[in-house]
Amino acid sequence: MTEFESRVYDLVMKVPEGMVTTYGDIAKALGNRGLSRAVGNALHKNPLEGIVPCHRVVNGQGKLAPLFVFGGLQRQKELLEYEGVEVINFTVDLEEYRYNFGLT
After folding, report:
1. 32 catalytically annotated
2. Cystine design at 99: which of 5, 19, 65, 70 (Cβ 3.0–4.6 Å)?
3. 51 burial type by CB count under 10 A (0-12 exposed, 13-18 middle, 19+ buried)
């Protein structure tokens, strides 16, 4: 695991149950909003299933990840709904469920 991946996973583990964040929010918290795609790549390689809750990361429009590494789109939806996040058409309302690490 690279230092960058470790930093991404550390941030994702701070997202509380019942909340989501975005790839862009994680990149911004790392100091460079341009790292959104690299954040996605790191999460796709997450070796810590069950420890790093990567199901809590969605895109900037609140859409779930079609290639969610631990079971696909439907599995990400199920995991979020289990935590109390409402998912409609595989999309989360970011106004209601977004956790952004205290950044504005």
Report:
1. no
2. 19
3. exposed
